[in-house]
Amino acid sequence: MQYRTERDPIGELQVPADAYYGVQTARAVENFPISGLRAPADLVTATVLVKKAAAEANASLGRLDAAVARAIVSAADEVLTGRLRDQFVVDVYQAGAGTSHNMNANEVLANRAAEILGEPRGTYKRVHPNDHVNMGQSTNDVFPTSTRLALLLGGAPLVLAARELADAFARKADQFAGVLKTGRTHLQDAVPMALGQEFGGYSDCIRRGADDVAEASEQLHELNIGATAVGTGLNAGDDYRRLVVDHLVRYTGLPLAPAINLFRVTQSMGDVLAYSGAMRRLAVELSKVASDLRLLSMGPRAGLSEITLPAVQPGSSIMPGKVNPSVPEMVNQVCFQVMGCDLTIAMACEAGQLELNVMMPVIAWNALHASTILREAMKVLRTRCVDGIAADEARARELLDRSTATATALSPYIGYAATAEIAKESVKTGRSIRELVLERGLLDKAQLDAILSVESMTRPGIAGAGEAGAAGGAGKAGGARKAGEAGKAGRS
Predict the structure, then answer these.
(1) pLDDT tier at 483, thresholds 50, 70, 90
(2) Which residues does 68 contact at the CB level (< 8 Å), separation at least 6?
């Protein structure tokens, strides 16, 4: 490999001759061979957008030579179209505040802009990384601004993926509206419900999580670009700050605005933490739903098996024919990772001191990683699982008919104690609730048919009240009296 010699305030260093990055990036590569992870694509895009906007603003204010500004803008546009992405080589785990990432961007744009102007890479006479590309900036305002912008670039697709998943569950809720099944609480049989009601709940859980993410993203619209080192705006100014934000709005179409308090947004990463917390809530809701899909599909012979998930791959290397809930399992793992990212972000946000949070690189990487994997997991869950879920109506009804939880509907008519005795007797003997009630003479057959109508139990109100009418009212009093007598007889 051929090298060129570059110098920075530390001294000289050999840089690969064909690299667009320079000496400070090369030092970071030597210093931090930690994970092999590089800056997320959206963070690179956001940082380059900031550099482009700054060059345009500085040129408008007469601070930056117009030809140099145009060259920097052209270099930035090349990166934005996908070129030179391999030149962003600094490890995620780097020196605090993201100085290495910022200088990586400065050097790549400076060398490419210099090349456009006819100057060899690494000379920095016509275009300098600090003096020109970084003009009016500090890492301390570039990196927070880039982090917020990067999250916003991925935020709309994340919310869209969540809402599309919620819509998919809503469609299934409509499809399964007539599928009656046993509800379950504490993993034990509970009162009847429709499978569509269960899926309708899943839909709204995901939708509410998506709404939280959308709402939390609004806090990210405030940008501290122009705050420079500590929030005072030294070497920048209000005109510069306004112009940079205006350009970013023009590039992205996002409702961005200069930070109301530059010191707050420079000191604190709390807005990113709030966004991460919203993603965590969405991940928690999503993981619960994925676990439920695994439970409802368990079997197919020795489990619930009320729904069937699409078979996407063989489930075992030793058991032929076994098919696992592979997609929901993946979703659970992604959600656990999102929750772990949120914990890292919370700890790093708390660790900021005085005028700056130097833990920004790990905050940015975890927030962007969480956003990406959560978005993609929801897409896969929708297209490769939820859209193809089928209900086993016969199996659901079989389990419902075997459940004693339907006895709950009797409580308004014969009382809780008598209902509990009948349910216990049904479990003990295997005899049906209906048979035991009729045998004890607690209600007549017509009343009992109305009360134990499973369909009526899935609606609000007292089951059978409308159908039983006046007879139901009389039956309630008489049934409760007979139940009390039967209970006394049983105890004696």
Answers:
(1) very low
(2) 55, 113, 117, 126, 127, 132
**Strand partners of residue 390:** 308
Is-cis flag, bond preceding 300, omega within 30? yes
Q: Pull the structure tokens for residue 302.
A: 């020795």
| 455 domain residue, yes or no | yes
Residue 469 reports pLDDT greater than 90: no
Q: Which domain holds residue 462?
A: 404-491
On whether both 38 and 158 belong to a single domain, the answer is: no
Q: Which residues pair with 257 in a beta bridge?
A: 222
According to the model, what pLDDT value does residue 467 have? 55
Confirm if 25 and 88 have CB atoms less than 8 A apart. no
Burial of 249 (0-12, 13-18, 19+ CB in 10 A): middle
Mean pLDDT score, 323-344: 97
**Do 155 and 131 share a domain, yes or no?**
no
Q: 424: which 2 tokens?
A: 């216990």
Give the contacts of 423 (CB within 8 A, at least 6 positions apart).
404, 405, 407, 433
- Of 316, 411, 456, 492, the active-site residue reads 316
Q: Is 203 a catalytic residue?
A: no
Residues 14 and 69 in one domain: yes
Do 160 and 131 belong together in one domain?
no
Closest CA to 417 of 361, 354, 481: 481
CB atoms < 10 A from the CB of 319, how many? 9
Say how many domains are in the chain. 3
Strand positions, DSSP E, 255-402 = 257-258, 307-308, 390-391
Q: Of the candidates 92, 74, 69, 216, which has an alpha carbon nearest to the alpha carbon of residue 143? A: 92
Between CA 414 and CA 425 the distance in angstroms is 15
Q: What is the DSSP letter of 405?
A: G
Q: Do 248 and 362 reside in the same domain of the chain?
A: yes
Output the pLDDT for position 478.
44
Domain-located, residue 399: no
